[in-house]
Amino acid sequence: MKKKYLGIDIGGTAVKLGIVQEDGEIKARMERSVSFDGYRTPILTTVLQAAEDFLKEQGIGTKDLEGIGVSATGQVDSLKGIIAGTGGNIPGWEGSPVGPALHEKFGLPVTTANDANCMCLGEKWLGAGKDCNDFIGITIGTGIGGGIFTGGRILEGSRGLGGEIGHFMTHAGDGVVCSCRNRGCYERYAATTALVRNAEKISPELTDGRAVFAAAQAGDENVKKLLTDWIHEIAVGLIGLIHIFNPSMILVGGGVSSQQELLIDPLAEEVKRMVMPAFAQGLEIRPAALKNDAGLVGAVYYFMSNESGQA
Length: 311
Prior knowledge:
By secondary structure, this protein is α/β, with parallel strands linked by helices. It is built from ten helices and twelve strands. A hairpin with a 2-residue loop joins strand 9 and strand 10.
């Protein structure tokens, strides 16, 4: 009988839950909105209830599980299992004691890690990073998330906050004001939100990433120029990271990562054009493989890697 774990992936709009086996196979899934009432109900309250409902629906008791692995949006203090910060993005989420609350409710060991780190861990375990010890994962969406694998280990820093690449400054000084209150943060220029913000100046119909890429595919020259400028901004941040960490691979996650011709290929070209030649040798840029499952399996892999877990 294979060991089973409860995987929980908490995002800014929804929580995904899964029963994950020790080989990474997801046996059952559930998803529930955490923003259904504009966050008047605290996210943690929704997560605790969703976990209870999910286990009841599956007929699984705590005695059937080895523990709980949590992937969570925000700056996660993985030592304490709490949300240490959010960059100002999600009301009421900062300070949430995710790990301790789940431990108290279910009596199981719990680990809690940042969602972008869990994406990288999932890719390392079962996805595109399986055979790679040094890679950077970047998730491009409402913001920019990131994880850094170096020497075969995820970089967490002293409290688990490492890899917060969305908030290093690529346009310091007079840059765009960020939700974290600084100016010029990477995600203000490289997130899909930034692309759409500029695309709406071209046409009010370009309200999301799909519409922007569709217009570029249809040959709209203004939108194609906009994409080129946006890809340059993504590349600028990656260049700095490449020169610091010397990865052999960049994995791109988020909904836009499916755009091979319009994003992945030109991004690879731009990065290799700008990076110092020695760093380009052997460097691959490719989409992440696990898509929406990465957080769930990465959270469980983090738990398994930390053995008994922490509340």
